[in-house]
Design brief:
This protein has 380 residues and is an alpha+beta fold. The protein has two domains: 235 residues, P-loop containing nucleotide triphosphate hydrolases (Rossmann fold), CATH 3.40.50; 127 residues, Nucleic acid-binding proteins (OB fold (Dihydrolipoamide Acetyltransferase, E2P)). The strands form four sheets. It has a six-stranded mixed sheet with strand order 6-7-8-3-9-10, with helices on both faces. It has a five-stranded antiparallel sheet with strand order 13-12-11-14-20.
């Protein structure tokens, strides 16, 4: 059993001129046994401070940290049954891989036979058996990070705390290590809390994802729920690559027949303004917002454009101009200029598009998300 509970957890640091900085603000969270939860957010949002509070490396200003139902606020780090892997693996350069992994066990005065068994078991799990006699300078970046993981694994803790362990690796090694971490979690069956600023990493690794901003958790959920149903504008813009398209405008009509029209600057007089007929579900959600400002959000994969037909467009066809083409392998991101606004579309790499080209555009209204511009929260 390894459950972590955070109840109204707050950490306040004293900044310059005695100003108070709330690194973590009234955070409530339960990480279940065997769960891999990812804390994701921009730099400085309080992710690492949260880990350090759980590990006992920082003392909370308010609130409680519970491990397996026991309040751990006053327990020293070594009594909390947690192991932390830092961003910088900080291996002892004069020690072999075996000695680095075994070092913490020797400090605990475990029998030599048990230390040897644990180190070899961890090395087998992490594919380090052939490297046990090497020094850190003879290892690749990925191998060094595996050694750092090995030091945590041999302790057999109830909870693993991983603080951006892959951020110093190159892109290819990060991809490989991400898969290895996922497999490792399955094999160990331990509770893991993983911190990252990389939202792709969060979506691919986590059983659940907690998005943080300014010390506050904005949304917690399974990855696809967070991606498809963001709780507010921050989550919608932070999660997803490329980010969600946002259009300011208003809804008009009545009943289940509503149309969204994008806000157009006074200096712009488009022949065909951006309008979108809303489906009945969206219309029902917006019944109290008719005539009021709203923000429409749409993922790039729900913006469809095709090769332009011969002749002028039909009167009801939305036309965009291709401003930038970003090929990323199997797909391409098109940056499009629409009268009064801009959009990003995700299209197949085989599409014959050119900069300056005019293309017909279709927006999938059933996938649109709407937000209150005053509060930033999603309109349910």
């Amino acid at each position: 059993m390894a459950q972590v509970g955070l109840e109204h957890l707050t950490k306040i640091f004293q900044g310059p001129d005695s100003a108070s900085i709330r690194a973590v603000d009234d955070l409530c969270l339960v990480v279940e046994h065997k769960e891999l939860l990812v804390l994701v957010g921009p730099s400085g949002c309080g992710k690492t401070t949260t880990l350090r509070l759980i590990a006992g490396l920082e003392e909370p200003s308010a609130g409680t940290v519970s491990i397996n139902g026991q309040v751990a606020n006053h327990l020293p780090p070594k009594a909390r049954d947690v192991a932390m892997v830092f961003q910088h693996h900080a291996l002892y350069p004069h020690m072999s891989v075996y000695e680095n992994i075994a070092f913490g066990l020797k400090l605990r005065h475990l029998p030599r036979a048990e230390i040897d068994q644990r180190v070899k078991e961890a090395a087998q799990v992490l594919d380090l058996t052939a490297c046990l006699d090497r020094k850190p300078d003879a290892l690749s970046g990925g191998q060094r990070q595996r050694v750092a993981l090995g030091r945590a694994i041999v302790r057999r803790p109830g909870v693993f705390l991983l603080d951006e362990p892959l951020s110093n690796l190159d892109a290819q090694t990060r991809l490989q290590m991400r898969a290895e971490l996922s497999r490792l979690h399955t094999r160990l069956g331990s509770t893991m809390i993983y911190v990252t600023h990389d939202q792709i990493e969060a979506l691919t690794l986590g059983h659940r994802v907690a998005v943080m901003k300014d010390g506050v958790i904005q949304q917690i959920g399974v990855p696809m729920d967070v991606y498809e149903r963001p709780a507010n504008l921050f989550v919608a813009g932070f999660i997803g690559s490329p980010p969600m398209n946002f259009l300011e405008g208003t809804a008009s009509g009545h009943g289940d027949t509503l149309v969204f029209q994008a806000q157009i600057a006074a200096a712009v007089a488009p022949q065909y303004p951006l309008t979108l007929k809303l489906d009945s579900v969206s219309a029902h959600r917006l019944r109290d917002y008719v005539g009021k400002p709203i923000i429409l959000g749409l993922r790039p994969e729900h913006v469809t454009c095709a090769t332009p037909p011969l002749g002028p467009p039909k009167e009801d066809t939305l036309v965009a101009v291709v401003e930038l083409i970003q090929p990323v392998g199997s797909e391409t991101y098109l940056h499009l200029a629409v009268p009064g606004c801009s959009l990003i579309a995700r299209v197949p790499a085989t599409g014959p598009f050119n900069v300056g080209q005019r293309v017909p555009l279709a927006l999938n209204a059933s996938q649109a998300r709407f937000f209150d511009p005053a509060s930033g929260t999603a309109i349910a």
